[in-house]
Amino acid sequence: MKLIFLGTGAAVPTKKRAHASIALKINGEVLLFDCGENAQRQMMYTEVSPMKIKNIFISHLHGDHILGIPGLLQSMAFAGRKEEINIYGPVGTKEMMIHALSVGYHGINFKVNVYEINSKEAVKIIDNEKFEVYAFPVKHSVPSYAYVFKEKKKPRLDINKAKALGVKVGPDLKKLKDGIPVKLEDGRVIKPEEVLLPPKKGICVGYSGDTVPIEEFGKFLKELGCGVLIHEATYDNTLKENAIETMHSTVEDAIKIAEIAKVETLILTHISARYDDDISIYEKQIKEYNGDMDIIIAEDFMVYDLKKKTCSISILD
């Protein structure tokens, strides 16, 4: 499982940072969080395949988070995509998609499902066998949501205990692991709870979108047991007034929410264009943090391996 940062800039793109877009690659599937202008071209330099994207999560409807959608969908159509795609976002997303799908002449022959989120509290928007995704309302100049991905893990089977109870190696072990009771030759029924261990902790990642710092979001992440938080940090700490005026966050703000969440890793993104030539003030302010949490400044084409907990820059030829 990997996080691949396609764009880490803010409202204005730069030579070093494209508009916001982050891909989460899991078991051959790609979940895309925001889709700023140029996202599909950024993908060409990574291991992200547009054809593997099944779900797109839009934090809010500012252009730097959505203008890559029309081109991405049209390129999928050119590539022969037939599989439907799901797009989630705040109220107004359906209207935005009507306009997006009317841009230019094209032949999009796959179904585009659009789901609008209209909730004042955390809401689960996806719940399948592999993972859950939650939307959490945050505070920005327009309706905006953070998203949380949480991997599901099946209970582990205590094979020695199962064998001691008389369960033979074979299909019965799989049934028990899948939560199905089995009947033995002597008539005894072995229930799954007799031989199952608690599941291992799954991977959990939070993505703030654009927002002022919200303590309740940090508490929600802690409740879910999240290990990684991707939080916007448009400004350094000396520009707190700018952050308040534009309803964004600073480095200090992001660290505060990450500390409340008790995450192991904080990744700062949505960096203002003013820092394109010199990010040293961010590095200085991060060094002032005295806790155990890892803090990373995201870069375009950065890959964070969620299992190995390693970070690298990977640009494919």
From TrEMBL:
Active-site positions on this chain: 64
Q: Main EC class of this protein? A: hydrolase
Q: How does it assemble?
A: Homodimer.
Q: Which Pfam families match?
A: Anti-Pycsar_Apyc1
The protein, known as: Ribonuclease Z
Q: Which residues of this UniProt protein bind Zn(2+) 1? A: 60, 62, 140, 210
HAMAP family recorded for this chain? RNase_Z_BN
Record key words, sorted: Endonuclease, Hydrolase, Metal-binding, Nuclease, tRNA processing, Zinc
What region holds the Metallo-beta-lactamase domain?
18-270
Gene that this sequence comes from? rnz
